[in-house]
Design brief:
- This protein has about 450 residues and is an alpha+beta fold.
- Among the domains are: about 160 residues, ATPase, nucleotide binding domain (Nucleotidyltransferase, domain 5), CATH 3.30.420; about 60 residues, ATPase, substrate binding domain, subdomain 4 (Actin, Chain A, domain 4, Alpha-Beta Complex).
- Helix content is about 35%, strand content about 30%.
- It has 13 helices and 21 strands.
- The strands form six sheets. Strands 3-2-1-6-13 form a five-stranded mixed beta sheet, with helices on both faces. Strands 7, 9, 10, 12 and 21 form a five-stranded antiparallel beta sheet that branches.
- The longest helix has 27 residues.
- The protein is globular and about 85 Å long.
- The C terminus is likely disordered.
Length: about 450
Amino acid sequence: MKDGPDLLVGLDLGTTKIAVVVAELDSRSGEAQIIGVGEAPSMGIRKGMIVNLDQATRSIQAAIEDAESMVGLGIDEVTVAFSGAEATSVRTKGMISLGRSARQVTMDDVDRIIEAAQSEIAVPVNRCILHTIPVEYTLDGHPGIDDPLDMTGVRLEVELQSIIVPSAVIQNVVNSVGKAGLEVSGLVMKPLASSLGCLSNEEAMAGVAVVDLGGGTTGVSVFSEGRPRRLSVIPVGGDHITNDLACVLRIPISRADALKKSVSLSPDGFGQNEKIEIESMGKTLSFSVREVVEVIACRLDELFSSLVVNELKESGISMMPGGVVLTGGVSRLAGLDAYVSRLLDMPVRVAGPIDANRMPPGMNSEEYSGGAGVIRYILEKERNPYRYIESDLPSEGAVSTLRNKRGARGGMSAGNGRKKAGDGTLKTVMENIRKSVKDLF
């Protein structure tokens, strides 16, 4: 990628599939055009976690090779989206004085206030901060400020959302990508990537929840006023529905998965007594459509009525005019949107990538929202490095290094005069993170 076009590459590590989305950046407009998508079956990943490093590495290599064959260019660095099922979200506040008389807010002031808010967090030794997301700034008591830089005041406050994940999870992701011969230029939580991939700006401003239904996990992200207010991962996904069907109906996993995709969750499906026959172990098994739908509905009731509802409550956002947006491979179940709408008593729609019309046919549906969202994530970070602040985690003894190599454009650009986020920011916290990772590995 060094001598050719400026490529942005998103690698989506899913439980069922690994997807790679490649975009070419137009340096004049700052926009990116998706030029290729690659994929491969996901091996060595269970419930969003890497459980076999070598298998995961081979799957990543296969997906990268598929993308390279489509775009005709080599890929050597990626931004990775991963689930991180044990992630926790912590909200903190910070305040600094700008002086006795009003003056303009500088980048050093933004660094100081973020560091002040971060100092309120006690990060366990085996965990580290992946994302630092400024939710809202307040200047002289006036809240709702998106970007305080160059504004004038005497007192600056911030509310931060910090995403804390186990250090070992990050290290395994970095190691598997590094063993595949790639450089990790950034990491992003999959719920954030998926929401950026499928949400319109209007929905994010109005208030909306995105539920990313994957094979092993379900990501939940709640947006209000254009900012993510909560990000979380539930360790329940489509594979659990498949396993339920296999156990209850006593059929092979492959047959259960096909059966899951063949029925509808519409009200008619619950009343259908039409018989389905499946050959298994030399026997012919027979059951009704209603039995299949009821097994699926039982797991969905647990997921949405309990687990997802709890996450929505934890976000603190009571009004969501945008309702719920479903994405991910499992969202393609027939009648799922109407069924979830009845469960939650909220408007629900299924959404694929916003850039679907610029993606190859057959590779632009709901399961590709995460990969497409990584591209949007990279672009948003380059336009405003303080929007999503990544910790620059070292890789002690690992194959690859997590680096923000695109900081040249995020650095002192003529367009906005910003420096790369993280330069001189959170020094104390970063030293603690480095020590944590070094102690572990």
